[in-house]
What we know:
Elements: E1 2-8, E2 15-20, E3 23-27, H1 33-42, E4 50-54, H2 60-63, H3 66-72, E5 77-79, H4 81-89, E6 99-101, E7 107-109, E8 112-118, E9 126-131, E10 137-141, H5 149-155, E11 160-164, H6 169-174, H7 179-186, H8 194-207, E12 211-215, H9 224-237, E13 247-250, E14 260-261
Parallel strand pairs: 3-4, 4-5, 5-6, 10-11, 11-12, 12-13
Antiparallel strand pairs: 1-2, 1-14, 2-3, 7-8, 8-9, 9-10
Helix pairs in contact: 8-9
InterPro entries: Metallo-B-lactamas, RibonucZ/Hydroxyglut_hydro, WalJ/YycJ-like
Pfam families: Lactamase_B_2 (PF12706)
Domain Metallo-beta-lactamase: 12-191
Amino acid sequence: MAEFISLYSGSSGNSSVVRCGQRYLIVDMGKGVRTTSAALKALGLAVSDCDGILVTHEHSDHVKGLSTFLKKNTLPVYGAAATLDFLDSNGIVPASCELHELEGREEDVGAFGVQSFPTSHDVPCVGYRIHTPDGKTMTIATDLGMLTPPVHEALSGCDLVALESNYDLHMLRSGPYPYYLRARIESTRGHLSNDECSAKLLELIQEGCKKFALCHLSQENNTPALALQTVFNTLGAAGVVPEKDCIVQAQRRNEMSPVLEF
């Protein structure tokens, strides 16, 4: 049985684990080493059982904890070439750290098969489609302003999808953010809204996927209840019954979310 576990998820920091048996991968590390290490310890995960860290992009809410963590723990880091160059040139990873470029085709990362795909963000950014040792497939895609063909392809045919549901459009437009920041978030190189996420989830459910994690919710422009309600409204209008036909879980900002088995 494979598991997806969000250690924390939101604009203040993101990190998750994909586990199968004793082996696991970490995706991003956007909070301090104490927070991440405490979460791994609570799950009973030894660093020696980790096959590597996948990094989606260079923004601090995805890499803040890497530097200190990697000084204490020797693990390989995987990502797009531009992201790895940024981490190396800015001293975010130790000089001794093994850096492995993932660009397009599926690669073996320990016991897992991992394929990166580009997402539309304001810095080079990728998502990951992960095949577990027991033959399951999940995709994580956050920090994307639009659902491009590579993203649609990566989300298709999965047992679990972790997809960004960053903001409610009304909250964003009526909130305190200055115009330039609102425009950035809404742009095709910004973030995905609740409405956009919900529409994609319905499409994926109709294709057969049953388990979903809503990720990277904005603290200022969204709430877990609102993100879930938007999804449930979209699904309900199409005759899909949550809990019966699918499981949709909003991921918690500052603590671990319940384990999602897939």
